[in-house]
UniProtKB/TrEMBL annotation:
PANTHER family: NMRA-LIKE DOMAIN-CONTAINING PROTEIN, QUINONE OXIDOREDUCTASE 2. InterPro entries: NAD(P)-bd_dom, NAD(P)-bd_dom_sf, NmrA-type_oxidoreductase. This is SDR family NAD(P)-dependent oxidoreductase. It comes from Pseudolabrys taiwanensis. It comes from the Bacteria. It holds the Pfam family NAD_binding_10. Residues 7-180 form the NAD(P)-binding domain. The lineage of its organism: Bacteria, Pseudomonadati, Pseudomonadota, Alphaproteobacteria, Hyphomicrobiales.
Length: 282
């Protein structure tokens, strides 16, 4: 069985390849990337597969049995890019697709979910057997916020008391590997999230505990949070997008207590305190 991984040189993709090599022969793994030269260190075959260049996709997917479609990082272009991959996969005879979606994609109020819903629908319509890996937030998403909190003396956000069931990229990579190498996952949708949830106040308390400094959480109006992000160099449009996610987060959009992720990977998910420690170490 040949397994293809799109976005294999990305942060999640590299972890998937590394973990997959421990469970499958390297010769059965293909990195599908924009620039094959950048995949040289992965230790697997690499093919050019650019989401934005459909002409590269058909040949790249030839001979691929199982495809892990890691969602594009280009918000606003994902739906078209993903459709191009799905169309090429169907023409190439790909037998199974696993797709990294977003937690509770069908009901999430986070605006990112729209493109994931469209992609899930396109995969279903293709007729290719599928598995949806609806990943929750990466704990690493808070790296910049943690650094800023230590430097500025406070963690800021607009998520109120919303609980966040995050996990690490390595945890989500392990779930992808379990699905790619296991059986019985066709037609399944997995809501993947960390075992323990935390609020941003909890995150601030953990930062305080580990640094020995008092780092409170300051909950700001969304507009003020966006302005603060922009003042620290985040592009204005992206700052507004990040701040806009906080309202649905405050209402539970990133909370899930099903423990599906830990069941799938056969171990507890990484405690958020461990990730905070790693971030603080730099």
């Amino acid at each position: 069985m040949t397994i293809g991984i799109t976005g294999a040189t990305g942060q999640l993709g590299r972890l998937v390849v590394a973990q997959l090599k421990a469970k499958a022969p390297a010769g059965d793994i293909v990195a599908l990337v924009r620039t094959p030269a950048k995949a040289a260190d992965l230790g697997v075959a690499a093919r050019e597969a650019d989401y934005s260049k459909p002409a590269t996709l058909a040949s790249a997917l030839t001979g691929i049995d199982t495809l892990l479609l890691i969602s594009s990082a280009e918000v606003g272009q994902r739906e078209a890019q993903h459709r191009a991959v799905i169309d090429a996969a169907k023409k190439a005879g790909v037998k199974r697709i696993a797709y990294t979606s977003i937690l509770h994609a069908d009901t999430s109020a986070i605006d990112l979910a729209a493109e994931h819903r469209a992609t899930e629908a396109a995969i279903k319509a293709s007729g290719i057997p599928y598995t949806f890996l609806r990943n929750g937030w990466y704990t690493e998403n808070y790296a910049a916020g943690i650094g800023g909190a230590v430097a500025g003396g406070a963690l800021i956000g607009s998520a109120g008391d919303g609980k966040i069931s995050s996990a690490t990229r390595a945890d989500y990579a392990a779930a992808a590997v379990a699905v790619l190498t296991g059986a019985g996952h066709d037609g399944k949708t997995y809501e993947l999230a960390g075992d323990a949830a935390f609020t941003l106040a909890d995150l601030a308390a953990e930062i305080s505990r580990q640094t020995g400094k008092t780092v409170p959480y300051k909950n700001l109006p969304v507009a003020d949070y966006a302005a603060a992000l922009a003042s620290h160099g985040v592009p204005e449009g992206f700052a507004k997008m990040i701040a806009g996610w906080e309202t649905p987060i405050s209402k539970g959009a990133l909370f899930d207590d099903s423990h599906t992720l830990s069941k799938l990977i056969g171990r507890p998910t990484t405690p958020f305190g461990e990730t905070v420690k790693a971030i603080l170490k730099g």
